[in-house]
User: Which sequence fits this backbone?
């Protein structure tokens, strides 16, 4: 049976990228590799929409999250964490691991943070040094209002905005310079259509000012070393050579596609999937603004998400993600990131219909596919 990955990371990788990565390894301290790094630097700046450097780290996304904290803050600093899901929770864990004082805004799963709460907290407590947020909270399918939060932090010289854009960068507009985000991180196994193993991070001038006084321990993820190396088209440590070569190919394709089309692609696939699921009587878990990286659907309670996930795997070779923590057993999540197109999307919707029909859910067979085709056309 043909296998499909519809998880919001890892994602399918285009064949031409796999072919590039299958070529014999090259050494990284060579003109040949420097030329690749140069192209990747330019391509990442295009996707991050920034004049700043975008660092290429050999780690999963969490490494860049940790680097964002370690490179900007000081021992004992207080940070404001938006915790509306698994990854918001992770910001809190990272900050605590570095001995920071953490104030959390607990957001109901499926809901987006209200920026007014952030503004009030910052007004009430001038000792808060940073706001830590997910642009897209993958565990709930929510898009938090990064732009509105940035408007708040931009008014303050003593507060930075650190954004986890791991399922946001390359998915929907998140213009780093224009919005005034201070640290933005991304990951390879998401919109970048690569296997896991690379993370990206960019810092604003304001974040670099914070860096001057930052005294948290840092070595492997010391962004100053990455900056110095990037200017010479290299990396401080041995880079993930193969993934970087793949990334150059992906970024070349993204340039051809164009940033606006890249965002539109995710928007269309997400819109079609959401409406298709509604047309077959499924409720969408995300209650506020949807991230276009994925669709989180509530499985009919009498069936349960585990049976839907199992059916998709056994009958169609399709892997989708389940829910975590409070959403465990309740939801299944279908991804629109990675090498996924219109036909893949119609296929997963058809497979969900077939699976639900077999499991006894009552709806008009084909209604979801018809809705998706209508939107995708
Ligand atoms: C929003 C978000 N943040 C952080 C992470 C963690 O990234 P990684 O698993 O690559 O360390 C993920 C991965 O799923 C994510 O979706």
Assistant:
């Amino acid at each position: 049976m043909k296998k499909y990955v519809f998880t919001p990371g890892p994602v399918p990788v285009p064949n031409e990228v796999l072919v590039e990565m299958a070529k014999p390894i090259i050494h990284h301290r060579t003109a040949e590799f420097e030329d690749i790094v140069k192209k990747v630097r330019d391509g990442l700046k295009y996707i991050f929409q920034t004049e700043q450097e975008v660092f290429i780290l050999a780690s999963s996304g969490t490494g860049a999250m940790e680097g964002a904290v370690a490179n900007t803050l000081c021992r004992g600093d207080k940070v404001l964490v938006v915790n509306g899901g698994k990854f918001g929770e992770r910001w809190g864990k990272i900050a605590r691991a570095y001995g920071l004082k953490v104030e959390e805004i607990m957001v109901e799963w499926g809901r987006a943070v209200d920026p007014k709460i952030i503004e009030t907290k910052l007004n009430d407590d001038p000792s808060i040094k940073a706001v830590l947020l997910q642009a897209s909270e993958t565990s709930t399918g929510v898009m938090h209002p990064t732009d509105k939060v940035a408007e708040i932090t931009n008014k303050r010289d003593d507060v930075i905005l650190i954004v986890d854009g791991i399922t946001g960068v390359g998915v929907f507009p998140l213009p780093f310079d224009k919005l005034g985000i201070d640290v933005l991180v991304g990951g390879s196994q998401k919109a970048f259509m690569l296997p896991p193993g690379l993370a990206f991070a960019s810092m604003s001038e304001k974040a670099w000012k914070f860096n001057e006084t930052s005294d948290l321990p840092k070595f492997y993820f010391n962004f100053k070393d990455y900056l110095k190396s990037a200017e010479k088209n290299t990396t401080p440590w041995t880079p993930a050579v193969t993934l970087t070569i793949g990334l150059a190919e992906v970024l070349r394709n993204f340039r051809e596609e164009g940033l606006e089309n890249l965002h539109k692609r995710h928007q269309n696939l997400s819109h079609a999937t959401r409406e298709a699921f509604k047309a077959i009587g499924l409720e969408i878990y995300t209650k506020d603004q949807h991230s276009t990286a994925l669709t989180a659907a509530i499985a009919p309670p009498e069936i349960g998400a585990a049976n839907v996930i199992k059916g998709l795997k056994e009958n169609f070779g399709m892997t989708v993600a389940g829910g975590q923590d409070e959403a465990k057993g309740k939801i299944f999540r279908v991804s629109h990131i990675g090498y996924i197109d219109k036909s893949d999307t119609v296929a997963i919707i058809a497979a969900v219909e077939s699976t639900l029909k077999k499991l006894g859910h009552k709806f008009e067979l084909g209604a979801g596919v018809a809705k998706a085709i209508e939107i995708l056309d």
In short: The pocket of pyridoxal-5'-phosphate is lined by residues 9, 60-62, 87, 134, 136, 138, 164, 166-167, 187, 196 (CB under 6 Å). The CA atoms of residues 192 and 310 lie 27 Å apart.
